[in-house]
Amino acid sequence: MNFERKSGILLHITSLPGRWGMGEIGPQARAFGELLAEAGQKLWQILPTGPVGYGFSPYWSLSAFAGNHLLISFDELIEEGLLSEKQLKHFPQFDPHKIDFPTVIAAREKILFKVAERFEPDADFTAFCVREADWLSDYALFMAIRETQKNRPWTEWPTALRDRDFQTLEKARTRLAKRIRRHEVLQYLFSKHWKKLTDFFQGLDISIIGDIPIFVAGDSADVWANRELFFLNEDGRPTVVAGVPPDYFSKTGQRWGNPLYDWAVHRETQFEWWTRRMQHILEMNDIVRIDHFRGFEDYWEIPADEPTAIHGRWVKGPGLEFFQCLERQLCCGTEFFPGLGKKFKLDEHVIAENLGVITDDVEALREACGFPGMWVLHFRFGAEPMHIPGYHPEGVEKNWVIYPGTHDNDTTHNWFMQIDAAERYRVRSYLHTDGAAIHRDLAELALRSPAKWAILPMQDVLGLGGEARLNLPGTAQGNWGWRFSEDMVSPESVCWLKDVTQRNGR
Description:
Layout: E1 6-10, H1 27-38, E2 43-45, H2 74-79, H3 101-118, H4 123-131, H5 133-148, H6 159-162, H7 166-175, H8 177-203, E3 207-213, H9 221-225, E4 240-244, E5 254-259, H10 263-268, H11 272-284, E6 287-291, E7 298-303, E8 313-316, H12 319-331, E9 350-352, H13 360-369, E10 373-376, E11 400-403, H14 412-418, H15 421-431, H16 438-448, E12 453-457, H17 458-461, H18 491-503
C-alpha cells in the first residue's frame, strides 16, 4: 500500500449528532468532515453500512450489498423536496447521546416509507435499478416478503418461499410490488446521499475507510438467494457456524452463529460472489478494513448445535488463492466476472484486521498480500515482558495501522481504570505520566509511532468514560447505541488534536 503518514478518527455514522434519533449521511456527516479537516485529519474509519438485523449490529446485516436505509438523511430529503419540516412536526424527541433502536427505527421508518411511497421514479432511479439488479432484485423481494412474515428469519417462512419456488416468487413479486418498489427507492436514496457524502470528503482530501465483515448473517438476502455457497441443511439452517475460540474477550469464546462458506463451491466460480462484494464496497469507500482477516487462512468451525464456541475446530480457508483470484478479476476480469466499473489493486485499498489468536501462517498470508495489519495499544501493556522486540509502539513496522483501541474495546479512560494495579503501573512508567489524561497520552503514543496510519476513536478524542463504549464482544444487547453531541466538542480539543497531529508528522 502507498502509505503516506496520516491519522484519522474512528466513528460510526450512527454515532454522529443530529435531530432525528441517530446519525445520518447528510449535513451532520459533512460537518464532521469539516471538523476532521480543521484538526488536520486525513482518514475517517466507519463500521459496515448495511441494513442492521439481530442486535442492531452493523456486523449482522440483512444484506452484504444494500445500504442501511436508516442512514438516509432527513435533512437531505427536505433539501430535495421529498420531505418537509411540517411532516416532521410530531417526530419524537430522543436522547442525543444514546440510540433507543426500537423506537428510533419505528419513527424513522414511518417517515422513510411514506417518502418512498410518494417518490416518482425517474431516469436516474431506473438506471440505478438496472445497474444494481444482480443484488437489488433479490434484496427488495427478500425485504418485502420478510415484512409480510412479521420479520421472522427466512428459514421460518412457508416452504415455497423459503426454498424459492419459481412460481411462488413470481406471484410474490406481483402481489408485493408496492413493497418491493419501496425498498428499491430507499436503496436509491441511500446511494444518492452516499455519493454526495463521498464526493464531499474527496473535496476535503479525506479518505473514508469502510468495513467488510468476512461472514454474512444467516438471516440475510445473500444466504436466502445463494444457499449453495454455504453449509446449510435442507431447511436452510447452518450445519456449522462461525466464531472464535476462548480469548481476551470471552472465556467461552464467541459463537457468532454466521453460516460458513462452502469454499469449494466458491472456487468453482472463481469466487465470483466475493469478487462482486469486494468491488461493491471498494466503489463505495476509498479503503476497506477486512474484519476477521485470519478466517481466510483458517477459521473456527463450530457445530451448529453447540451453545458456545468452546467445542470447535480450526479449518483451512481459501488462503492466497482467494486474494489472487479477486485481484485478477478486479483488475482484468474473467469469464465469470467481466470486471466492469473501476479497477482495483487490493494492496492499495485493504487493511487486514489481524487481532486475536494470530499464527505465523496468518501473518505470512497478510504479508504475501501486502496488506497492513492492525496494532492496538490496549493489548500491549499486559504481563508480557516489555523487552520483547516489537512489543513497544516504537517497534511497529511502517506498514501497519495503529489504534489506542477499536470499536470492540472500552474507551481508553475506562480501560485504564479497569486494568489491574501492576498493568496500570507499567502504563504510567512507560508513558511517564500520572494517568490523569491517559486518553491523550495513549493517543500521542499512537501518533508518534512509526506506523504510517494512526486511528483514534472519537470517544478518546473527547476523553469519555465507559458510558461511551460502543460494543462489548460476546454480548448481544446494549451495544452500538452511543452518540456524541456537538456541545461535547470543545475548541480546545480540536486545537489539541491538530497540534499533536502536526507535531508527530501526520
